[in-house]
Amino acid sequence: MKNIYLNLSLLLALVALSVGISLFKPVNLGLDLKGGISMLLEPDMDYALTQEYERYAKDIERKLRDAGINVLDVTSDKSGIKVEVLDKKDIDSISQMVSKDFPRFEVVSREKGQVLIKLKDDEIKKLKDSIAGQTVEVLRRRIDELGVVQPVITKVSGDRVLVELPGVLDIDKAKSIIGKTALLELKLVVGSGPKEVLEQKLNKDTELLPSRNPQEWFLVEKLPVITGADLKTAYTSTDEFGAPAVTFELTDRGARAFGDATEKNIGRRLAIVLDKKVMSAPVIRSRITDRGQITGQFTPEEAKELAIVLRAGALPTNVKFLQETVVGPSLGRDAINQSIKAGIVGFILLVALLLGRYKVAGITANLAILLNALFLWAGLVLLGATLTLPGIAGILLNMGIAVDSNVLIFERVKEELRSGSSPKKAVELGYRRSLSVVWDTHITLLIAALILFQFGSGPVKGFATTLTIGSIASFVSNVYFTKFFLDVLTKIGALKI
Q1: Range(s) of the domain holding residue 52
Q2: How does DSSP assign 328-359, residue by residue?
Q3: Which one, of 167, 171, 135, 138, lies nearest residue 151 by Cα?
Q4: Which of 102, 224, 271, 479 is the most buried (most CB within 10 A)?
Q5: Among 101, 123, 145, where does a domain finish?
Q6: Per the database record, which ranges form the Protein translocase subunit SecDF P1 domain (predicted)?
Q7: What is the pLDDT of residue 314?
Q8: Number of domains in the chain
Q9: What pTM was computed for the model?
């Protein structure tokens, strides 16, 4: 009786806890149940390679000139860094210098006084992997700032990234935040005015950028004073006229570089460039160190979105939207309604089968199935898991699998009763002799679910999650508590099987 009271107390405590969790905290619904946006993106690797070659072109040119090599010109594009030399004899010296000082690069062609320098194949692969990984992390931080519950951001089929946003239906807003490169650069201004006039002053150390005013262009130095990588945080604020603006704060390293540059260039204009467009170009009046402000006739919503993408960091390259899908919540309601109907029909059939086959013992099996469903649901809520349509399929499958343990145990108990054992002894022997099989079944199912979760993605993970939690809930309810129910029936002399 002491064990019965102890198990009854444990059962009531678990039921009360599970009911409380289920009632006071809703389960997270996935895209297929709640509706939302699904997007397939791809980082622009050609643009990323071009940027990487541009970053190194100036360093390579400086090294060549320091080594006394007569260089006519150094240019770069997505194919590599092209070096034109006056004397073809210098080509061997260039190869030696690249091999010694720039081990990530190699000379791949030498034609007509021109040398083509490229990243090695393994370095290109590392760069692409790094860009894909950075893209996923930046997108994750941006979406976290949006407050989307349980988004899916994962790499699929090579460099592509799948983004699912449950509950978000404004696709234009989502694209404006997710797809914005948000490359922030602060560059010293060489001149401003009409594009045609400035084009005459353009050289390899400067670039021509548009502004928010279509009539005004800016000629700026290519090398930025600081970039978005030096940002510590960004937040919405107002400018001196009370208009929406974005204030940013710099890291210690960025503050030192910014302070040195502004101190040396007092009186010059400093262009605040976002995604290759000049947002504003104030005059440097004094030394500035740890913070700055971006103005540009923003609306409050635009300022808020800009602060979000700056806080989350710049994407390492442009992204291309390959596919966009909006899933309406009505589709999710239909799926939920059909799943509920399937669950009810399945449960009624199980109840009828178990009662017809195992009589009073079948009641305990049905109670165990209900406990299994309750514990599984509470587990999903407690872990913050996302319920998807495949996840619901996993729940229904788990209900069917849960009966299997009871069938094994009940059949062993019936064998012991037929051999002449008392009801109490039959229950004890039946459990003892079937427990190893039940253990093997649950462990095998758990391992399979964990493998699916580790190597699957999207819907497969949802299915694996419910299967994992369900395997644990099944063992607790359909093995431990079914034994308790049978002990009670044996004690009161009501066991019929």
Answers
A1: 45-123
A2: -HHHHHHHHHHHHHHHHHHHHHHHHHHHHHHH
A3: 167
A4: 271
A5: 123
A6: 134-189
A7: 67
A8: 3
A9: 0.57
